[in-house]
Amino acid sequence: MISALVASDFATPHVDYHALAPEIVLGVGICLLIVLDLFLAESRKWLVSTVAGLILLGAVLPVVTLGVIGSDVRSMFDGRYVIDNFSLVLKALFLLSGYVVVLMSSRDTEERTPYQGEYYTLLLTSIMGMVMMASARDLVSVFVALEFLSIPAYMLAAWRKRDSKSNEAGMKYFLLGVFASAVMLYGMSLLYGVTGSTRLVDIGQAVTGTDHLVGVQVLGIVFVIVGFAFKVSAVPFHTWAPDVYQGAPTPITAFLSVASKAAGFVALSLLVFLAFPAAKSVYEPFLWVLAAVTITVGNLLALKQKNIVRMLAYSSVSQGGFILMPLAVAGTGDARTSLRAVVVYLIIYAATNLGAFAVVMAVSRKTHSGEIASYGGLFNYAPGLAAVMTLFLASLAGIPPFGGWYAKFGAFKAVLEARTGAAYTLAVIAAVNTVVSAAYYITLMREMWMKPAPDGDESPVRVPRNLVAALVITGVATLAFGVLPGFSGYGAITGLAGAFGR
Amino acid sequence: MDVLRDQNWLLSLGTFLPLAGVVIMLFIPKRDEESAKLVALVTAIATVAVGAYTLVKFDYGQSAKLQFFTSHDWIRPIRATYTLGLDGISLPLYFLSMVITLLVIIYSWDHIPSPGNAKAFLMLMLVLQTGMAGTFVAQDLILFFVFFEVVLLPMYFMIGVWGGEQRQYASLKFFLYTMFGSALMLVSFIALFIVTKGNTAEGGSFAFSWFQAHGPEIAKTTAIWIFAGMFVGFAVKVPMFPFHTWLPDAHTQAPTQGSVILAAILLKLGTYGFVRIAIPFLPQAAVKWAPAIAVLACIGIIYGALGCLAQTDMKRLIAFSSVAHMGFVMLGIATLTPLGVNAAVFGMVAHGLITGMLFFLAGSVKERYHTLEIRRLSGMLKQIPRLGWILGFCAMASLGLPGLAGFWGEFPAIISSWNPAQALVGDGKLDLFRVLTVVAALGTVLAAGYLLWLYQRTAFGEPNPEFTSHGSGAHSLSAAANHGDDHGSDLHDVNTYEWIAWTPLLIAIVVFGVYPQLMFKVIDPAVTNLMRVFGK
Amino acid sequence: MSQFLREYLTVFWFAVLALLLAGLLLGISALVRPNKPTAQKLLAYESGVDPIGDGWSQSQVRYYFFALLFVIFDVEAVFIFPWATQLERYGTFGLVEMGIFVFVLLLGLVYAWRKGALRWV
User: Fold this and answer.
1) Half-sphere exposure of B87 (CA within 13 A, CB side)
2) CATH number of the domain at C56-121, out of 1.20.58.1610, 3.40.470.10, 1.10.472.20, 3.40.50.300?
3) Are B354 and B397 within 8 A, CB to CB?
4) Domain range spanning residue B42?
5) The domain containing residue A335 runs over which residues?
6) In the predicted model, is pLDDT for residue A409 greater than 80?
7) Which of B408, B413, B384, B388 has the alpha carbon at shortest distance from B397?
8) HSE-CB for A257 with a 13 A CA cutoff
9) A73 or B24, higher pLDDT
10) A328 lies in a domain?
11) pLDDT band at A44 (very low <50, low <70, confident <90, very high)
12) DSSP C33-46
């Protein structure tokens, strides 16, 4: 009797299968991949990487159809899981950068370690977490997505089992990641305790009203931001990044520095725009300091690096500061402009940085070295590689007509829209920093174009086909975003603010 | 603003044609240098042909208006447009950039600097050309910024790969200075946009016409700060006095072709920015900044001249003379009068022709003597008389001899500084400008001094025995002087490629010197139009 | 005091409190507890048995396999029991959901089996 009554309370949740199709394709694909790997003969294991790539592309398909068919917002589970333009753009970003990482991986892993099946399974699982993150609109689903994407990444960082550096990378990443999660969870629990809801929009409504915020609310906000600051390696929570990036296999480094970081920023933007819109007096100064310090310290440390991966690691720390910039004025300035700036920066940065790592992989096949000095003479024996690397570095430095300039432009514009003294100061700090960053990108260019090969070996580099494909995809994207920035999904995200209910 | 939209494809064609050449060259194997050179040459000739057609079709009766105007959406969300247009100020510079590129490519036919690789060298040159031409015709701030920056990397590589001993240092310095300027400039551009568009989320535009209409409305204090950012960006490029230190290094270390382009066109991007953007958009700030600019310009004139007197290297001397000449240009601009700006634009073109020519000469001297040390060069008129005479001609032009092009850049600039714009009268500013007139005039005397002294030391007298090559004795002599190369065989007079590359410049110097009205009548309406905001 | 500082005052007090509390707990126990070190007390404690050999001992990696497998299926049970008590309430939807859950775990079992984790070598 009672049970019947209770049963009537339960309504089967509405599931929009079309909206969930990317996740479903990925989920089924992951299961398929495990089975495939188990039953394939050793000689045909290469199929695994191909299938992994196909699964990712397959998951992009529904993203495209969703984008084309309806611009309406599809909301599920009481608005805790939302598919809107913002999430679609980011899903596409995660899936495509995942595809590029698969392209980069397929030869690398073959040569270095066995267990490719697991490698791709974990990679796809992590991407699945990111895809979920883009749609999460609830503290719990944000957290689940975060762990979903982080835990496989910890294992992938330690993938080169016999290499102590890789082990160190995995361990460090795991410990600091767990610590960050703990801090964040604490913050989330405080927020839930104060507001009585885990839904971001509910929190956004509760953390408002009085202009003087309750102390616990402030604590909750600060802790959550600190947690994500670890994820996006903002200074002073960045210390894990260079060691992890150096130790992890290069494709995974690329993956971490691009996709994983992007996921962290997605979560941060969700919180800033949905959960804390009224608390700008709390998060803005905090993020301002984080952004300014991150850009500056990241740059200064990058200047000193001798190893290319460490250099790119610190450069990505500094780039993260640029992405934080629009968030630091999200409340005072124009919210739409800030959000667009973040998303556009993430997209362009992904193309550029993945490309740079692809070149690093191609070159290290010949030189077997990660030292910046080993890039000497590259222009002579591999002009193509030197040219695309120049393209990527120029884009990172923000020189037109390569994508990066537009990303930086968006960030500057968002900051200046705020029209406060603090915002102008931040813009000038960032402007000076672009010059500092140019100095270390140019060091590498100088090495490639103007120095002789250190060992005098000028035999050409053989670049495997899939790496060439990765280079072409990222190179064309970087150039296209620079010349016709309209491509970077800018138009699609204009509808986002409506989806946010603001 | 009134614009003429006839043949609006013409400027896009002229700007992007060099890129088509680059794309074709991509498919030429590196070994096949002849084909690479041929493609580059054909591209450059075609570009100049398009430029010449532009010259012919330009409506000189309406040179104040933007002609061949085209405008399309480019980046909608930020309201940047693809807008090109050409008026009397842009026309000479636009065409000059095309001609210089062609001449430089002709010169490169047998002068590819070490370490070779003609394909890459010429490709960079063509990319450079697109950036330069685009900067002069862009009528949208973002488009302008992109073109302005496009020149950065090719020039960096040109200096860094094909330059002299200190090339890596020089190229890095060039890059970082320019990058610093443009970063602040970009911030100013965005700030300008945000301030002019008001509080509305929609509206506003990055098109020049928008800023011309709404820039002057900005509050004075804000405008002064925005101007400051632009000032740094453009002043680094010009280069003006405190920001000039990259120039001597870059010029000295760059290969001849790089120096020529740098001197003839790249420096003009900065002054053009002042004339086209900073001053018309923010006249209220320009009035405040003008005295400071004028003072810095005069410091540049004197400092550049004194620097020249102290140089022992011919190329470095010419580089310092650029600082002085650009000082005159900036002085003309700082007066904010039509006369001063006319002089400045004329000075830009004249300096492009003359100093470009001087760098060609320096390159050829270096190629023959393997040194540019003034102390070791002498008696050029005896050894290689034609080259020596051309050097003399260019030195005269450079010091501002009436009848040659250089004069019409300097003289009116000095005159105009005696009577600056009405807004600059009062608070003792007029006195300041009149003092500067005297200082600038003094600068011309110094210019005569260093150029004639240079000419006297290098061209007159007996040839240095080190380089006289009659029989085998000379070889041992040069060997004794620690120069193992066979100088004797290098000491030929002006060759065909050099003649082809130089003649147009020499003719232009004379023509514009004798009949300056040819250019003034094109520039003047456009300049007057831009300077209307300052009254008179 | 600006509003910004006032809001961050909470964070400051919180940090002070955290430090104080930790310091207090450790400090008081250090003060209060009797401190009589003997050699016996410094020995590693091993279930009341006299310690033998190194403190650093190795154990069979195979135990970990089984421990992990056990944990996985233990968790599975933890999820299934509450679901089973409410089976009618969730209806077909719940059945399918649980089917997917079990299937994924089953996949894990197949994986363990194919990789030879189930054999005691």
Assistant:
1) 24
2) 1.20.58.1610
3) yes
4) 10-469+490-534
5) 279-502
6) yes
7) B408
8) 34
9) B24
10) yes
11) confident
12) S-----TGGGSPPB
Take residue A26 and report the two structure tokens written for it. 């990925």
CB burial of residue C5 (10 Å; 0-12, 13-18, 19+): exposed
The answer to whether residue B482 sits within a structural domain is no
The model's confidence at residue A70, banded by pLDDT at 50, 70 and 90, is low
Residues A126 and A90: their CA atoms lie apart, in Å, by: 14
pLDDT by residue (tens digit) across B106-141?
988 888 887 888 889 999 999 999 999 999 999 999
The mean pLDDT value for C32-55 works out to 74
Contact, A194 vs A206, CB < 8 A?
yes
**C-alpha span between B513 and B397 (Å, rounded):** 9
| Nearby residues of C36 by Cβ (< 8 Å), 6 or more positions away | none
How does the average pLDDT of chain A come out, rounded? 85
* Cα C25 to Cα B227: distance, rounded to the nearest angstrom: 61
Task: Assess if residue A456 is contained within a domain.
Answer: yes
User: What mean pLDDT do residues A321-335 have?
Assistant: 87
Q: Where residue B231 falls among pLDDT bands split at 50, 70, 90? A: very high
Residue B414: inside a domain, yes or no? yes
Those residues whose C-beta lies under 8 Å from the C-beta of residue C74, and which sit 6 or more positions away, are none
> Does the pLDDT of residue A112 top 90, yes or no?
no
When pLDDT is cut at 50, 70 and 90, the band that residue A212 belongs to is low
C106 touching chain A per CB within 8 A: no
| Residue A447's pLDDT band (cuts 50, 70, 90) | confident
Answer whether residue B475 shows pLDDT above 60.
Answer: no
User: Which residues in chain A are contacts of C3 at CB distance < 8 A?
Assistant: 211-212, 281
Q: Which residues contact B366 (CB under 8 A, 6 or more apart)?
A: B256, B315, B372
Q: Could you give the number of structural domains in chain A?
A: 1
CA B212 to chain centre: 25
Q: Note the pTM of the prediction, 2 decimals.
A: 0.88
Rounded CA-CA distance C116/B223 in Å is 74
| Within-domain flag for B483 | no
- Lowest model confidence (mean pLDDT) among A122-136, A200-214, A361-375: A200-214
Contact assessment for residue B149 and residue A404, using Cβ atoms and an 8 Å cutoff: no
Is C4 in the A-facing interface, judged by CB distances under 8 Å? yes
Q: How far apart are CA C85 and CA C78, in angstroms?
A: 12
Residue B181 falls inside a structural domain? yes
Residues A33 and A124: beta-carbon distance below 8 Å = yes
The Cα B511–Cα B403 span in angstroms is 9
Query: Which residues of chain B have a Cβ shorter than 8 Å from any chain A Cβ?
Result: 30, 74-78, 120, 142, 145-146, 149-150, 152-153, 156-157, 160-161, 167-168, 171-172, 175-176, 179-180, 183-184, 186-187, 190-191, 193-194, 201
Using the predicted structure, report yes or no on whether residue A109 has a pLDDT greater than 80: no
Give chain B's domain count: 1
Domain residue ranges of chain C, discontinuous segments joined by +: 1-36, 56-121
Place of tokens 């320009």: B286
Backbone phi and psi for residue A33, each to the nearest 5 degrees, phi listed first: -65, -40
The structure tokens listed for B64 are 């104040």
Question: Six-digit token pair at A184?
Answer: 């964040």
Pick from B74, B153, B178 the residue to mutate for testing the A interface (most A CBs within 10 Å). B153
Neighbours of chain B (3+ CB pairs under 8 A): A
Digit-coded pLDDT (tens) for B389-408: 999 999 999 988 888 888 98
